[in-house]
Amino acid sequence: MTRVWQWNRPVTVREVLEDLQQERSIAYTTVMTVMDNLHQKGWVRREVDGRAYRYTAVSTRAAYSAALMNEAWSLSDNPAAALVAFFGMMSAEQREALQDAVRMVSPGPAESAPGNPEEPTAGAAGDDAPADDATPESGR
Q: Residue 48: enclosing H or E segment and its boundaries?
């Protein structure tokens, strides 16, 4: 699948074979069997091209990774603890990517709920008086 995802175009068994053979010795029939298995499992679709098939990924690598993470998370008896443990395993770079992703799927300031601290409220500018609404910290 790595080759199919990398190339992001329909590929033949011969193309995958030639690429793999740069790293190790592998038989044509082995690659053909793996591609056929991927097709049978629904990971790739194939179209006839002369006497060969051209294989195309059904989904992206990102979608596949997301599905794996979702499946693992949903199988947990304590999803919150699983997420905390997962986040604890992440590098700083991965956590930054996660924060970026959360920002992409979260509503922007203009779409936020009323009372969002990022949005000024009426009479808030220059007003040092305490708020009229109760907050957990004030005990009101």
A: strand 44-49
At residue 136, does pLDDT exceed 50? Answer: no
Q: Quote the pLDDT of residue 83.
A: 87
Predicted model pTM: 0.59
Cβ pair 34, 46 in contact under 8 A? no
pLDDT of residue 90: 93
Cα 84 from Cα 75, distance rounded (Å): 15
φ and ψ of 55, to 5 deg = -105, 140
117, 124 contact by CB (below 8 A): no
* Helix residue ranges, H only, the chain: 2-7, 13-20, 28-40, 61-74, 79-89, 92-105
106-120: burial string, b at 16+ Cβ within 10 Å, e else: eeeeeeeeeeeeeee
Residues 30-46, mean pLDDT to the nearest whole number: 96
Take residue 64 and report the two structure tokens written for it: 């596949």
